Amino acid sequence: MELRTYYPTIVLSDIHIGSEHSKTEEVTNFLKHVNCDRLILNGDIIDGWQLQKQGKRWKNKHTDFFKVLMKMMEKQGTEIIYVRGNHDDFLDHLAPMTFYNVSIVKEYLFHSFGKKYYVTHGDIFDSVTTHMRWLARLGDIGYTFLLWVNKIYNRQREKSGKPYFSLSQRIKSKVKSAVSYISDFEKELVALAVSKKADAIICGHIHQAADRWYGDIRYLNSGDWVESMTALVQNELGDWKIVKYNSRQQVSEDTWSNKILYPEVI
To answer: Does the keyword field hold Transmembrane (predicted)?
Structure first.
């Protein structure tokens, strides 16, 4: 019998299904090896911006992802909460809506293990995506180009036996304006959590997994499935950890099971 790891709550964000850089197969494989009571899909799961482009089409691997979600609902009774993001803002016309075990919302509040959590994708605090959509789309083109360059660069690194290197993450960590933006983003979301009388804020959007404390407020970011391939998981004691999918460790089912039981924690 296949061994699955149980987490009361799992949070995924920024899968960007429809983008050629989305790690759709990897996140699908991740979900095949876990059980959870609550799965929060925190925005930019489907990349509507990319799918609207000429030549883009829905693929079997995209359908496979949603088939796994349906099996989780049917066999495990998993509740799925889909929080809209800026790349899947076509859901604005549907939210809030609940059918079967799926809820489509713009924000989400829940209680777990005596704590109150406020969940938002985070784009509401990004003035570019909120007020300057044309500039956000231009930035999306630039980011897609950077990922293309990064892909070629890492092919050469792989041939030399070197590990994956993220150009975009390095830029974010070195460019002063990017560092300042991320810091301000976190502080704004923490302030929002305070206004909601929540103990923690859970978000995505900036593709930077994080687990930090700002005073009494915990800031949690689930990262992305374009480069970092990270998820937020809550254990049976109610605590949270960031787990990272590492495809190099996926040699066999046994190796995979061990990796999930003892995940790489950031």
So the answer is: no
Average pLDDT over residues 129-134: 46
Tell me the two tokens of residue 47. 């990349």
**162 domain-assigned:** no
Q: Burial, 188: exposed, middle or buried (Cβ in 10 Å; 0-12, 13-18, 19+)? A: middle
Using DSSP's 3-state secondary structure scheme, residue 14 falls into coil
Q: How far apart are the first and last CA of the chain?
A: 30
Report the amino acid identity of residue 68: V
How far apart are the C-alpha atoms of 228 and 150, rounded to whole Å? 13
123 falls in which pLDDT band (50, 70, 90)? confident
Which residue range is the domain that position 202 belongs to? 3-127+198-263
What predicted TM-score, i.e. pTM, was given to this entire model? Answer: 0.76
Q: What pLDDT, on the 0 to 100 scale, is given for residue 149? A: 67
pLDDT digits over 197-228, tens only? 999 999 999 888 999 999 999 999 999 999 88
Query: For the domain that residue 88 is a member of, what is the CATH number?
Result: 3.60.21.10
Residue found under tokens 């150009």: 167
How many structural domains are present in the chain?
1
What sections of the chain are H helices per DSSP? 24-31, 48-51, 60-71, 127-131, 133-159, 167-174, 176-195, 253-261
